[in-house]
Amino acid sequence: MNTAAKNRSELERYAALLEEARAIKGISLGRDAWRRLRRIPSAMFSLGFLIALGLLAVLTPLLPLQAPRQMGTRERETGTGIRINKFAQPTFWPLFIEVPNLTQNEKEQPDGAAETGETATRDPFDRHFGKLDPFSRMLLALRLKIFGTWSLNSICGTDLLGRDILSRLFWGARVSLAVGLVATFVSLVIGVSYGAVSGYLGGRADNIMMRLVDIMYSIPFIVVVIFLITVLSAETEKEIKRFVLAPTTEMSEKKGLVPEDLRTEFKEHKVELSDKAAVKWDKPEDRWEITDGNRTYVIRNLRKGLTVFAVRTGRFLEASRIVIFFVLVGAIYWLTMARVVRGQVISLKNDQFVEAARTIGAGRSRIIFLHLVPNLLSVVIVYLTLTIPRVMLFEAFLSFLGLGVEPPDVSWGLLANQGVQAITAVRIYWWLVVFPGLALGLTLWALNFLGDGLRDALDPRLKNR
Amino acid sequence: MTGFILKRLLWMVLTLWVVFTLSFVLMKIVPGGPFDRERSLAPEIKRNIERRYYLDEPLWKQYVRELGNVARLDLGVSFRLGDFRVSEVLAQGFPISASLGIVAMAFALSLGLTAGIVSAVRRQTLTDFSLMLVATIGIALPNFVIAGIMIMLFVFLLPIFPAAGWGTLGHLILPAFCLGAPYAAYIARLARTGMLDVLSRDYIRTAYAKGLSSRAVILRHALKGAMLPVVSFLGPAIAGILTGSLVIEKIFGIPGLGIHFIEAAMQHDYTLAMGLVLVYTTLLYTMNLIVDISYAYLDPRVKLE
User: Fold this and answer.
1) By three-state DSSP, how is residue B81 classified?
2) Sequence-separated contacts (24+) of A2-10 with Cβ below 8 Å
3) Which of A26, A163, A268, A451 has the highest Cβ tally under 10 A?
4) Does the distance separating the beta carbons of A433 and B152 come in below 8 Å?
5) Is B93 in contact with B257 (CB distance < 8 Å)?
6) Would you call B139 an interface residue with chain A, using a CB distance cutoff of 8 Å?
7) Residue B168, CA distances (Å) to B100, B162, B246 in order
8) C-alpha A337: how far from its chain's center?
């Protein structure tokens, strides 16, 4: 009996052990890290915040917000006419207002439209929201179906031109986040390839490549970047053609689209004007301008008659500042990444899996990019979350100097800059500084916390603890 | 030691040459010169100006001439600020930017170190959490937002400091604080981590065991070890303060180098821009060198090679 009980307890013990063994599963590196990350509340909170922010930024057109470029959406009819509601304090009541002209053009300025060469049929969406991609347009149409023209009141106030800050914050988030992500991605690609190649090759190539990085570390890059952006995005004017129009040509009353007689006149001088070409004048009788794409024809009334100067205005690089920014940031922020990756590759490159790959005849680039780089993922992810905030701060810094995102596009840096510019002794428009600052601050805060959390979670020394 | 410094100085010369060449090439390939106005100049005048600044020579000759001038520390004449030599502009702006930077650095170090040490010693208390909260906010906010909030609070709401300008001590405090604040926050976090690391070491336990007061242990034994991560951060911090001062000088209207730099870049004032880029590079390099040397002094295990 005694032995039977003993046997049974033995059996139970084995069963328990078996149960325990069954419960233990092999855990992949990623899942292990995820488990540890879940235990860090600040990191999880940050992750949630960032996911929510990303979703909201993507779905911004769907939200019942006022239009980011519409001025004075709460226009009030006063005795003297329409007053733009600029620098309005944050107002919570009523929470929702109806914005009747959200989908209409302001019809009171047909002259202005003609003068800028914009036809009256210009889409109100474009006017109030800027050029949108098809997906955003679809969301916007959906929003108009769901909410109509009802929009959230200006709970963050309005700016100098009476534009709603809350809506500008949301639309700015799209730009700021996209800039942060894309620029970081560029630096990531350069840094990882450079570091991995340098570390794997070793020897003299490694030495030269790393010396180069050392030299670049000592270059005050921000200074160089400012110089580059101002110079590369400066508009250049170049005179490419000059001819005198026939003395019978009459210019003084022409405005809007180019009339047929002027068109044929131009054709005689071998200049084809497109359908979109439009005339405007600064001073009647003296100077007119025809804009056609990126080319401008200046017509001046000189002694020898109406003279046309064909001027091409354009940039040295036909790219927007944002693109220049991506490339430049990619060119700067890869340095640290390259160093970190190189160190990791050096410690990994003599491991057996690399040896095995080499044995079956894998080439250098195959080993580097298919075998080594995936093993660097943890380092890369951590560094990624810490680089995005730096890039976003840099974008804000450039926007502050007027070298970043160009109006009428918005980004958080630009918004904060406009707030700082609006500070006067007369009245304090605190909401113009505080809300963009808060948006930027919270996002960077979350990214920093997430980066710290990921570093702890992916640290191999903490594994299985 | 001397060998190390000499070697690094040699590298500095190389770096400066790279920067010079890079800037020179950029300035020459980009269209639009410093003398392009809205109205084109008469050809004779244009020719005269170009001859005056040697712009009519072939590029390699210009390059050699300018490199020679820079090697003789002659930065030439500013293209835009008439009658000013680049060296004069630098001599006027440098002391201002330098004093702003030094005071900002002093702010960053004193505030950051104090906060970091206090929160490490009182770790897991309310003091620790609130200090670190403030520090993370400081890291996450761009300095012009901090400056905007500070101006609203301490210039307009409570009129303590002047809004802008330069000359008195009052003009210096607010800009220097805004410039130093993000770095104070970084230093606080680094000092806290370093301090926590050191406080768990055996030699600290020994120091306590032989009956030293906790003040003596922290200030005499722990602090030196905890300074290491802070010192290695000083290089990037100095670089950041240099560039941050571009923004701060613009907001507070301080006539330092930063304003000149932005103007020079925008107006194609190439000689001035080149001079400033070279000065910034030299500064950055020298500071990194000093940081490396002091690192070896603080940690005897580090060997300078």
Assistant:
1) coil
2) none
3) A163
4) yes
5) yes
6) yes
7) 12, 10, 20
8) 22
The answer to whether position B97 is within a domain reads yes
Q: Is the dihedral of CA B218, B222, B223, B226 positive or negative?
A: negative
Percentage above 70 pLDDT, chain A: 76
Does A224 contact B285 at a Cβ distance shorter than 8 Å?
no
B230 contact A CB<8A: no
- CATH code of domain A165-232+319-462: 1.10.3720.10
- Subunit contact B15:A434, Cβ cutoff 8 A: no
Q: Could you tell me if residue B48 is inside a domain? A: no
Judged by a CB distance cut-off of 8 A, whether residue A273 touches chain B is no
All residues at 6 or more sequence positions from A425 whose CB lies less than 8 Å from its CB, including other chains = B155, B156, B163
Per-residue pLDDT of A209-233, as tens digits, reads 888 887 787 777 776 777 777 766 6
Contact A245, A307 (CB under 8 A): yes
User: Both tokens of residue A381?
Assistant: 């992810």
How far apart (Å, rounded) are the C-alpha atoms in residues A28 and A36? 12
The residues spanned by each domain of chain A are 66-152, 165-232+319-462, 235-315
Please tell me chain A's helix, strand, coil percentages from 3-state DSSP, rounded to the nearest 5.
60, 10, 30
Task: Identify the domain containing residue B168 by its residue range.
Answer: 93-267
Q: Across the interface, which of B19, B140, B148 has its CB nearest the CB of A433? A: B148
With both helix axes pointing from N to C terminus, report the angle between A334-348 and A321-332 in degrees, rounded to the nearest 10. 40
What's the pLDDT score for residue A59? 86
pLDDT given for residue A398 in this prediction? 83
User: Are β-strands A305-315 and A295-302 bridged in parallel, bridged antiparallel, or unpaired?
Assistant: antiparallel
State whether the Cα torsion A436-A441-A444-A446 is positive or negative.
Answer: negative
Nearest residue on chain B to A426, judged by CA atoms?
B156
The CATH code of the domain that includes B254 is 1.10.3720.10
Q: What is the pLDDT of residues B160-205, one digit of tens each?
A: 887 777 777 778 888 999 999 888 988 888 888 888 888 888 888 8
- How many CB atoms are located within 10 Å of the residue B230 CB? 23
Rounded distance, CA A313 to CA A296, Å? 7
Q: How far apart are CA A231 and CA A204, in angstroms?
A: 37
> Is position B40 within any domain?
no
Sign of the CA dihedral running A122, A123, A125, A126: negative
| Total domain count, chain B | 1
B168: closest CA of chain A, how far (Å): 21
Give strand pairing partners of B83.
none
**In this complex, is the C-beta atom of B165 within 8 Å of any C-beta atom belonging to chain A?**
no
Rounded to 5°, angle at Cα A279 from A278 and A283 = 155
CB contact B153 to A (< 8 Å): no
Q: d(Cα B264, Cα B276) in Å, to the nearest integer?
A: 9
Q: What is the dihedral of CA A103, A109, A114, A120, to 10 degrees?
A: 30
Could you count the other beta carbons within 10 Å of the beta carbon of residue A426? 7
Residue ranges of B 102-131 with Cβ closer than 8 A to chain A? none
Strands A278-283 and A256-257: antiparallel
Flag whether residue A450 sits within 8 Å of chain B, measured between CB atoms. Answer: no
**Residue B300 falls within a domain, yes or no?**
no
Quote the tokens at residue B259. Answer: 């304003």
Set of chain A residues whose Cβ sits within 8 Å of the Cβ of B142: 393, 396-397, 400, 413, 416, 437, 440
Closest chain A residue to the Cα of B239, Cα to Cα: A220
Looking at CA atoms only, how far is residue A5 from chain B in angstroms? 51
Q: In chain A, pLDDT over 90 holds for what percent of residues? A: 3
In chain A, which among 184-223 make CB contacts under 8 A with chain B? 214-215, 217-220, 222-223
Question: According to the model, what pLDDT value does residue A55 have?
Answer: 92
Cα separation, B73 vs B281, in Å, equals 14
